[in-house]
Amino acid sequence: MSGGFLRRMLPSPDPARPAGVSVNPLLPGAGAKVAAAVTVAGVVICPLVLDDPFWITVLGNAGTFAVAALGLSLLTGFCGQVSLGHAAFLTVGGYLVAYFGAGLGWPLPAWLALAAATGAAIGALVGPFALRFKGNYLVVVTLALIFVVTHVTRNWEGFTGGFDGISTNKAPLALGGLDFGDMSAFGQRLDRQQGLFYLSWILVGISALVVRNLVRSRPGRAMQAIRDRDLAAEVIGVSNARYKIAAFAISSALASMAGAVYAVGLRFITPNEPLAELFLSIRFVAIIIVGGMGTVYGAVVGALLLGPLPELVKEFVSYLDVTIPGLGRPLVSDTVAAEPLFSTSAFSEALFGLLLVLALLFQPQGIAGVVRSVRMRIAGRAPR
Amino acid sequence: MPGRARREPAEEAPAALVTPVLRVDGVSLSFGGLRALDDVSFSVRPGELVALIGPNGAGKTSMFNCISGVYRPERGVLQFSGTDLVGMRPSRIAAAGVARTFQNLALFENLDVIDNLMLGRHTLMHTGLLAGAVWLGRARREEIRHRRHCAELVDFLDLGGYVGRPVGLLPYGVQKRIEIGRALAAEPRLLMLDEPVAGMTRSERSQTGELLSGIRAEMGLTMLLVEHHMHLVLEVADRVVAMNFGAVIASGAPEAVAADPAVVEAYLGASGGADGTGAGD
Amino acid sequence: MDKFLQLLLSGVALGGIYALVALGFVVIYKSSGAFNFAQGGFVTLGVYMVYQFGTDWGLPFWLALILVMIAMAAVGMFLERLVIRPMVGKPTFTVVLITLGLLLIIEQVVRSVWTTPGLVLSVPWGNGRSQLGDVTLRHADLWTMVSVAVLLAAFFGFFRYSRTGLGMRATALDQEAAAAQGISVGRSFAVSWAVAAAVAVVAGVMLVSRGGGALSPAIGFVALAAFPAMILGGLDSAGGAVVGGVLIGLAEIMSQGYLDVSWLGSNVEVVVPYVLMVLVLLWRPEGLLGTRRVERV
To answer: Which residue of A has its CA nearest to B114?
Structure first.
């Protein structure tokens, strides 16, 4: 880059980095292209080669978790608004698909759109509170969402089935001629779980694209400005009101859609678990932190690694069923009679807590931070 | 009210016919009984560079915050090109054409130079949520067009060597320059700079002085400057408004204000005199 | 009138429990500016330890209580040193998230150590009650109010007159400036965590004795109702925590006693504190007795 008003007077720029600005921000690097291609190929092949229903379910659920995590990533990682209410929106989506999809027989696009729209509407209602309450306060105010939604699911029996819960099993899964509930691909008949796997990962693809496009363009940049310095952003022309509300609405829409698909996979939902729980909200916070805040792929990677943790603990409990010497009790077991130190659910809960603490202490930038430093090391070795 | 009679001596007949870019009239502000601004009045005419000077705590930054809508004055009129600013949200004031920098850097430290400059252009762009999410056609073209503009600005400010890194990691002087760039990127009709050379070394100060003259020469901007350093003020300002304890104590031509006994006393009285007048530079 | 007095008494007593938990929040907030979600975990762990020392091993109750308070203070200091101190200077929300992680861990540790369901804590006042005219005074409630009063007085004296307390207030205002004045920021943090954990023991004992002594690993959830109490009262004010706690306790009990809220469904009292908190905050963002802050650029 030639010229420069202050050229002569300033310390010369870092020679390691070529000066100049890419005017087209949308050219992804070769690495990102390869990663995207590998991911797509993996997603397509996975249900065809894995005939273990356990893994299909686990990876499908990881997909729905990734969709919700992308939402929280936009809200917290890019817009800086910490929310403990994320699980409440999954619950909303879950009950919507139960009532309108399974109950009234609304088709897939209709219940999915309803979940997204309702999530967005409730999220937009929460948004204004984020203008008034910041940081710690917002954490507690969003926590209130969990209590309110749990209360509603327990008591609005006509809609939610109350404590008895409600079935989501009959929710239609057909999209035009393509029925995710009964599809065939490459000459293979696929069952409902395999179909749901594809449905969730298609949603992951769409949500990831949407979030990535947003954060690279004007609205997402405005959100990041609010995250870094909200008052300064307002002063240079970024309306905090508009973008905080937008971030809450989009994030909640994604969570609500994810909750709907997740609930269909569960076949039956009750107010007690596993939707509207503080634990689930913390899980999503752990997912985006371990994955790496402020990156799009971090949310997906975090969801893949941490989303299925409880299921994995349950499945592989026999490996953890080791007796602790001197205590005579196994570490984890699913039989109460064995007097384990931890039940399977307690163990995965504690594990989430531990991972969250360890990540914040030792790798606050998460896996994305590790990737970044590896990349920089490789770049550093390249000849200057 | 000392100095009140001296207010606006530079208001000459021909200038009065021109609508000022900024008109401040009788603005008062207090924080829980503490008077931050006391009946402050001055104006900035098109193309002018007016400097607000005064010791620490004189109310200069409070004045800036009133103009950009962060604080709401209890009394008084604030007009920007004839539009009332009092009660407008800060983001609307920015959209109307007022851009500013901050005394203690307020860059978006996790974003890079380009993104910070692009945020300066936020109010000039139109891409909304839907267009941004889909990213087709117009949104994309708009993004590229504005990035090109920012690239020119990067070149103008000689920031090319710092692109691609979070600005929070860059040297202080560079960050100060980026902040001026962010305000320039907005193509403002009024540029307000809050202590642009605070905390800088002597050579950085003179660079910034040249930068300000360069901005005026190339862009012909109307500017309001808050500054401690009398040296810089004498060099670049057309007119000076001196404040102390929230009130205007003198205003007029730079040399006249600098020699005003009330101003000299204010500077010597406050310990700011040592670093304030910058007489040794 | 008797009904009103009776409800007033219960409301104040319930509020006292919230206040005891909220005092623990306040002391940590005052020194570090962060919410401690693990406070509920401290409450649970503390009361289970009192059960262990007193009821199970047969130590006199008051001795057990004091020993556990000392032990929990050590636990608090240990955790602070281990996971909070390294976060000094980081954004407070990372500290908040760490305390969330601690909450998950502590609750599960309690479940893993005390696996027998249906444990009952015995306290000297048992289920005793006295009759004052037509109003019944439960001794558990009386003790709750006494401990609130004693702790509030102690807090007041501590923050107003002791060197450490003054240092903590300075630390909360400005860590760097406090350090420059020779105040040890680390020491302030450590003391606040120790005090919070010790106060949690009292809160846990009072909470459990009010419920007849039945222990459950889920009792820490009371902390989630005490959050609104703290925020309502004003984050940085011990007196505010008590006022907020009593207000929420009263709102809960009075609405149960006078309003037919059956159309709102069962267990509506879980939601009440939060609704009340949001309403008060919309009116006074700094809480009832909190300090107002001016935002600066």
So the answer is: A21
Residues A13, B108: C-beta atoms closer than 8 Å = no
Report chain C's C-alpha Rg in angstroms. 19
Amino acid identity of C121?
L
Contact flag B70-C294 (C-beta cutoff 8 Å): no
Q: A332: which DSSP letter?
A: B
User: CA B108 to CA B94: how far, in whole Å?
Assistant: 17
What is the average per-residue pLDDT within C3-7?
85
What is the per-residue burial (b if ≥16 Cβ within 10 Å, else e) of C197-222? bbbbbbbbbbbbbbeebebbbebbbb
Handedness of CA B137, B143, B146, B152 (dihedral sign): negative
C-alpha distance from A220 to closest chain B C-alpha (Å): 8
Tokens of C35: 């919410």
Please name the residues between 171 and 210 in chain C that touch chain B, using a CB distance below 8 Å.
none
A46-55, A133-142, B77-86, C265-274: least confidently modelled range: C265-274
* Weakest-pLDDT range from B142-146, B156-160, C239-243: C239-243
What global pTM score does this model have? 0.87
Q: What is the pLDDT of residues B18-75, one digit of tens each?
A: 789 999 999 999 987 788 999 999 999 999 999 999 888 888 999 999 999 999 999 9
Contact A119, A257 (CB under 8 A): yes
CA neighbor of A69 nearest in space, from A194, A265, A195, A207: A207
Residues B99-113 as b/e (b if ≥16 CB within 10 A, e otherwise) read bbbbbebbbbebbbb
User: How many Cβ atoms are within 10 Å of C9's Cβ, its own excluded?
Assistant: 19
Residues of chain A scoring pLDDT < 50: 1-20, 23, 26, 274-275, 383-384
Q: How far apart are CA A104 and CA C102, in angstroms?
A: 43
Residues of C in contact with B103 (CB under 8 A): 297
The three-point CA angle A90-A95-A97 to 5° equals 95
Residue of B nearest to C297 (CA): B102
Greater pLDDT, A103 or C180: A103
Q: Quote the CA–CA distance of C259 and A148 in Å, as a whole number.
A: 19
Which of A265, A226, A280 is closest to A72 using CA atoms?
A: A280
Across chain C, what does the average pLDDT equal? Answer: 83
User: Alpha-carbon distance B257 to B23, whole Å?
Assistant: 20
- Collapsing DSSP states into helix, strand and coil, what is residue B218? helix
State how far the Cα of A143 lies from the Cα of A159, in Å rounded to an integer: 23
Q: Residue A339 half-sphere exposure, CB side, CA atoms within 13 Å?
A: 9
Which residues in chain C touch residue A143, judged by CB atoms under 8 angstroms apart?
A: 224, 227, 274
Whether residue A111 contacts residue A180, with contact meaning beta carbons closer than 8 Å, is answered with no
What are the chain A neighbours of C282 within 8 Å (beta carbons)? 132
Judge residue C228's burial from the number of C-beta atoms within 10 Å of its C-beta, 0-12 exposed, 13-18 middle, 19 or more buried: buried
C98 φ, ψ to 5°? -65, -40
At A201, which amino acid appears? W
Rg, chain B, Cα only: 19
- Cross-chain CB nearest to B157 (options A5, A23, A236): A5
Interchain contact, B133 vs A239, CB within 8 Å: no
Task: Give residue A22's pLDDT.
Answer: 53
Within an 8 Å CB–CB cutoff, is residue A144 touching chain C? yes
Sequence-distant (≥ 6) Cβ neighbours of residue B247 within 8 angstroms:
B1, B2, B3, B37, B38, B39, B40, B59
Helix, strand or coil, per DSSP, at residue C24: helix
- Give the tens place of pLDDT for each residue, C202-260: 999 998 988 888 888 888 877 777 888 888 887 777 788 888 888 888 888 887 777 66
Nearest-CB residue to B102 (from C294, C295, C297): C297
